[in-house]
Amino acid sequence: MQRRNRESKLNRIEQLRIFCMAAESANFREAAVRMGISPQVVTRAVKELEAAFGELLFHRNTRQVRITAFGERLMHRARMSINALDDLFLDNNHRNDNELRGIVRITAPSTLTRTYLLPILNKIALDHPNITLDLRLSEVITDAVDDKIDIGIRVGFLRDSRYVARPVAKVAFFVCASPALIARCGVPTTLEQLVERPMSAIVDRNTGRIWPWYFADGQQVGPRLPAFITDDPDTERRSVLDGVAFGQLTAFMAMPHIRSGELVTVLPELEPTPWDLYVYRPQRGPVPARVRLVFDALVDALSASGDFPIDSKSAT
Q1: 79, 269, 276, 312: least CB-packed within 10 angstroms?
Q2: Element (H or E) spanning 272, and its range?
Q3: Are residues 65 and 197 in the same domain?
Q4: Are residues 157 and 281 in the same domain?
């Protein structure tokens, strides 16, 4: 029902265009010729408008068609509205792309934002001061369509057919520990040995459950007695850096600390297949120039980044 109502409202615009042309023509046939439609379409449009307003728009007989007083008043109002609508689209079609303006709403995980996203977004903000960037940080998977998000960035799996998604990088996962924890507990060489050691646990904010740890060949394990539990990846990283527990961290979170020697990777032979990093947007109609600019900039910058190793060997 709601869809039919929307279609009816959209059709009213075309009906008013036809009505105005009929009012400005000698008869319905002339209006039809000028618009490239059949006289029957003109007649039907006028009849539907008369039914909608409950008023006659034309006095009609076999010899002539004459607009009524109500029809003349409606014609002037309709013509003003249609001209304003045409001007709106004319202005949009002739707008200089250098005059980009408006809000672009973005959702992204906090773990990627400071290091990878802010430099890109801040440059866009400086280059295009009329664009307002509305960035919402969340590890929760946001419904871009329902929440009116223009662009999303996510690690993992994205199978929603409503989205236009571009995989831009591969994200590896490393099991890490501080040198101090390694000195206390030793290096695990099997998954069985790993679960006997202190492990961190991250709560999936989408489900409220603890994330499993992923390994090669589809293997998964979960902490038996977690030494530390949180729903914030940055907090988990801090606990791993401080030697509280072993943690399975994304490569882009662990890599700077691996290079500095603050973290050591273990079980490299069991690292899982890297996940995709996506930039996506809803698949709906024309894309505003401001959204396309931000989307393309994020895709280009993240695709070109060398900070996404596919295994722990390439991280060092």
Answers
A1: 269
A2: none
A3: no
A4: yes
Alpha-carbon distance of 159 to 113, in angstroms, equals 23
- For the chain, the first-to-last Cα distance in angstroms comes to 60
Using CB atoms within 10 Å of the CB of residue 249, give its burial: 0 to 12 exposed, 13 to 18 middle, 19+ buried.
Answer: buried
Residue by residue, DSSP assigns 45-63 as: HHHHHHHHHTS--EEE-SS
Q: What is the CATH number of the domain that holds 136?
A: 3.40.190.10
d(CA 242, CA 223): 18
List the CATH number of the domain containing 188.
Answer: 3.40.190.290
3-state secondary structure of 177: strand
Are 163 and 284 spatial neighbours (Cβ–Cβ below 8 Å)? no
Under DSSP, the state recorded for 218 is G
What's the rounded Cα separation, in Å, for the pair 72 and 56? Answer: 11
Please give the single-letter amino acid code of residue 297. A
Quick one: 40 and 82 in the same domain?
yes
Give per-residue pLDDT as tens, 218-234. Answer: 999 988 889 999 999 99
On whether the pTM is more than 0.85, the answer is no
Full residue range of the structural domain in which residue 177 is found: 173-270
CA 230 to chain centre: 27
249 in the same domain as 177: yes
Query: Are 266 and 179 contained in the same domain?
Result: yes
- DSSP class of residue 25 equals S
The predicted-structure confidence for 69-95, as pLDDT tens digits, reads as follows 899 889 888 888 877 776 666 555 545
Residue with the bigger pLDDT between 146 and 189: it is 189
Which of 23, 7, 21, 108 lies closest to 58, judged by CA?
23
Q: Of the candidates 93, 115, 143, which is a domain's last residue?
A: 93
